[in-house]
Amino acid sequence: MNIMKFGGSSLADAESLRRAARIVAAKTQVPLVVVVSAMGGTTDRLVEITSAAAASDQVEATRLVEDLKKYHQTEAHLVIESDLQPQLEIFLETQFSDLYEAVVKLATLGSLTPQLSDEIASFGERLSSYVVTLMLRSKGVKTALLDSREVIVTDDQFTQASPILDATRRRLLDIVPQLHLENEVIVMGGFIAATENGDITTLGRGGSDFTASIVGASLAAAEIQIWTDVDGVMTADPSILPEARRLRVLSFSEASELAYFGARVLHPSTVIPAVDSDIPVRVLNSQKPDVEGTRIISKCPPSSVTVKSIAYKESITVVDIRSTRMLMAHGFLARIFEIFDRFGTAVDMISTSEVEVSLTIDRTDQLNEIVDELKKFSEVTHNAGQAIVCLVGDNLRYTPGIAARIFSAIQNVNIRMISQGASRRNVSFVIEESDLHTTISALHNVFFDKVDKEVFA
Ligand code: ADP
Ligand code: ASP
Ligand code: MG
């Protein structure tokens, strides 16, 4: 069995939907589970709807819901055969009336809970999975729809839920083989799930990749394919560096470091279930299905390549915390981390000196509260508009002199906080966001000017 996951940009309009259908119909391995994201920018639009409703702007929220409905009707209509159109219409009417009801509830209440936010966000994948199912049936592919909320079981950390893998595996193994008796393909929505009690949850933005690997690992798939809008995992984000090259092969550890440090092409948790079950992940371009993509496997063939790719994270805030005593007292770090933890704010990078700790965060919604607490025992300053740049490669561990090559390439850039990750598979540092492009471009020239053709395309 194989898993194919299609991202939102691969399902954004009738043309891309048809392309995805052709890829599924040309499958070489049945049975198949197809995991779909919400169409186009639907989740972003649902987030906007949620904000408008939470601000009690019902007029704006209603207008946005109507727009989203029209978008789904128009594109879906073009890819579904006439016999199935009435079924589509009824489905869209019911879903949009449910969405509208949730929006009115929120606008009236005026207070947004993470649970309600997940309920609204879930409509994207509920809609797309239904549309893709009817589209595949229109093409004569025997297709069943599986509601992810019935099989992906999570805890109740709404907006950022974690899967409960045993329960999920049990449910998938109960249902999927049954459905496959009569169907070649099973379609399910990524990103959305439910608690044991049936409350809707989501796995965090970009979480459909994670759904695909949870399903793949649970069902012992031969391969997990992530179909997206670029040729594979590249040496840098091609949207800011068009000359980026495709990696033919990457290790699980390299892929997780890249994802963790911002390479949006994979959700950071994607490789975890795949590693545990040793299932290869392949990243492919739905616009160019003949390009072989990037294979992500447990161990790459030996090569002398050190840096495989450069990732970055924007909108980072650096917080400097200076002990008000001469030296950092025993327990100073513990106190600091307890505060960040209490306010649910993850810390990415940290560096310390005798009297000062600097750290980076990307969520700042609780920053004022955190600073108030820290000020009880330290002096605090913070700077927004920073970025983390991270170079990744398994061989970095064994290669002396990399830091010199990195920092001599960007002598004119002001660098703060340098860290070699505990895994020693990455080197990361913080710069001003405005220096991001120059920095990545200069580093790319140094490390990817001449490349090993076995590793890079
Ligand atoms: P999808 O909708 O298919 O899930 P995403 O937008 O989540 O797609 O991820 C694909 C995007 O990831 C690409 O369009 C690209 O701009 C971005 N990206 C960032 N870093 C990388 C990288 N190293 N390699 C490939 N793509 C990257
Ligand atoms: N639709 C969700 C999002 O936009 C999940 C995903 O696309 O992976 O974040
Ligand atoms: Mg994605």
* Mean pLDDT level: 95
Residues in β-strands, percent: 15-25%
Major sheet characteristics: 8 strands, mixed
Regarding CATH, which class of the largest domain?
Alpha Beta
Number of strands: 17
Task: Quickly give the CATH architecture of the largest domain.
Answer: 3-Layer(aba) Sandwich
Strand order of the largest sheet: 3-5-2-1-8-10-11-9
Number of domains: 2
Structure, described:
This protein is globular. It has helices spanning 14-25, 42-54, 58-79, 85-109, 114-121, 123-138, 148-151, 165-182, 208-218, 252-260, 271-277, 332-342, 367-374, 402-409, 436-448; strands at residues 2-6, 32-36, 143-146, 153-154, 185-189, 192-195, 200-202, 223-228, 249-251, 281-285, 294-297, 309-323, 347-352, 356-361, 378-392, 416-420, 426-432. The strands form 3 sheets. The protein has an 8-stranded mixed β-sheet with strand order 3-5-2-1-8-10-11-9, with helices on both faces. Strands 13-14-12-15-17-16 form a 6-stranded antiparallel β-sheet. Strands 4-6-7 form a 3-stranded mixed β-sheet. The chain is of the alpha/beta class. It folds into 2 domains: 2-229, 3-Layer(aba) Sandwich (Carbamate kinase); 309-447, VC0802-like (2-Layer Sandwich). The chain has 15 helices and 17 strands. The protein binds adenosine-5'-diphosphate, aspartic acid (ASP) and magnesium ion. Adenosine-5'-diphosphate binds at residues 7-10, 37, 206, 228-230, 233-234, 236-239, 263-265, 309.
Characteristics:
457 residues, VC0802-like, 17 strands, six-stranded antiparallel β-sheet, single chain, Carbamate kinase, alpha/beta, binds aspartic acid, binds magnesium ion
